[in-house]
Amino acid sequence: MAIQPSQLEIDNIVAASGLRLSNPTVPASDTDTGTQGDISWDSNYLYVCTSGDTWKRAALSTWSELPVTANLELWLDANDSSTITLNGSTVSQWDDKSGNDYHVSQGTASNQPTLTSSVLNSKNVLRFDGGDYLTNASATPVGGSTNRTIFVVFNYTGSDIRYAFMLGPSAGSAGDNFGITQEIAVRVQFGNRIWSSSVGSSHSIVSIVLDGTSTTDISAWQNGTSLGVSSTLSNTVNTQSSFGVGGQGASMLIGDVAEVLVYSSALSTSDRESVESYLSNKWGIT
Fold first, then answer.
1. Residue 86 pairs with which residues in a beta bridge?
2. Which residue, 63, 64, 67, 134, is CA-closest to 280?
3. Do both 249 and 132 map to the same domain?
4. What pTM does this model have?
5. In terms of domains, do 233 and 96 share one?
6. How far apart are CA 268 and CA 66, in angstroms?
7. Residue 256 belongs to what domain range?
8. For 140-182, what is each residue's pLDDT tens digit?
């Protein structure tokens, strides 16, 4: 039997440290014997008797720290040591936490970023020196002109245009790539969208949303604040396979990357703000 109201009733409690249901017996069906208020559970469902001999259940799912997981295609987290393959102090592979296996790697030791400890809110980051980059040469988490939302937590300590993250190859036909630079800008082959802000030595959360098929359909936020557009060179977005962190063999980042999230949809305002809040709290960025 499930726990009965006569066995445990809680009403008008001012404070309690927790409630534990031990050795539950789940109802055999939604019409099994029960009294309103009975509760039970197993590894898949939580069961509640809503009226006499009438049960409803809710599925249990894995609890992710990330508030929005629908349409999540790529998740790189520098503070998750289980996703980092080290070659001494440098990183030879950074694994995708989304479950889609979009891992990035670098086989040449001199081009591997350094795992640097306790940099941002006492958390680890990957540090790129202008010659380092991690790539996936055979796939991209979002391709063509598919709507997308990208979050990159990074900083920049150089003095010219450098890429923090790039979808598609470093060169190709019109619209083939989709690169996020510290300007802040999105640059595609023969097109761009540039905003009136930049990322400097202080780490920033940069949020990019493509809601359409052209560079004119891209919006950006820095630490949750909407950015005004400085200039746009219109071109169709047509992202091809491959992607990289820290650039892809050209205009490579001088700075840190802490986290990258890529969604294959234009997130709603509330969902985007939820992810930005998660990143802000995690990395101590306001």
1. 91
2. 67
3. yes
4. 0.80
5. yes
6. 16
7. 72-283
8. 999 999 999 999 999 999 999 999 999 998 888 888 999 999 9
